[in-house]
Amino acid sequence: MAIAGRVADGFERVTAAFEQNFASGDDLGAGFCAIYQGQVVVDLWGGFRDRAGVAAWTEDTLVPVYSTTKAIAALVIATLVSAGLFDYETRVAAVWPEFGAAGKADVTIGQALSHQAGLPGFAMPIDPGLWLDPPALAAALAALAPMWPPGTASGYHALTWGYIAGEIARRVSGRTLGAILREDICSPLAIDFQIGLPAADDARCADMQRPKALPNLGAANDFKRAAFLKPWSQPNRTGPEWRRAEIPSANGHGTARAVAQLFAAFAESGRIGAERVIDAITYAQATASRIEGDDLVLPYRMDWAAGLMRNNNLAFGPNKSALGHFGWGGSMGLADPARRLSAGYVMNRQSNALLGDARAARLIAALYACL
Description:
- 31% of the residues lie in helices and 16% in strands.
- By secondary structure, the chain is an alpha+beta fold.
- It is built from twelve helices and 14 strands.
């Protein structure tokens, strides 16, 4: 199994863990990158980007990271807060009036970003094609009644989160969230990550190998059914329409290095390298705990910031001040402000783990052992 990349002296254990993920048969193709105190200390890639095991994974192979995208979209929202366009206590309906229908008039942007809006999915049938039409899906959400009183509990908004965040961004800025990410952050800083992938980049994309088993969601309830289990709960994730759509909860594409670079903003108090992308006050507000408790959709006790998972379950290493997000199948981004450490893991052989994929856990443990 060909593995390439660069590892700083003292971080060789991470290479061994990366190799172990392939030796165990858990990984087909993957990348892992870590940035420590402003320096790239690990940048590895290897394996194959196609299911047949023929095309080599290269330094610029792109991977859909699914829900890891949420934290990157949350960074975009934080830039808008930092620019003074709204704050986290602004009501969603103040910038998107239609959202105030059906008992949602008082839902704040901070509540929506921390999965408290009561809109984890659609209990009644919708056309699944709406998922690939973000303005239409956002309009359907705006008309929907919440499934629980907003602000009283969190329930993971697996897909709907991105349409809410995306519509907020569009209403206040006149640009899509993906355009803001590209124009204001990724292009100026040479970061290879996109929400809404151009056709020209299709050839760089890895083929995804779906998990062989469904995730363990715990005891079923109406919230989990709406989020995950209805025939209309998910879009068709194949074909060019999926790649082109801007779905800030689910279809960001990038490299492990790009994920680590973007998560560095949460590890470095709002900076990516020498560039400040969010101010210190916004950083504190974006990363603060907004609700902690048993999630109504995920089978875990969660501590939600404004679009990020806080590390109450220690899935992102030993420091409780760390933040991160996992994506469907195992992708992961972490940010540890106590260590000034960020990391990204991407892969194309998906597992059924919802939180704490074993491959990512192995890499995180090895990384902290080197510090």
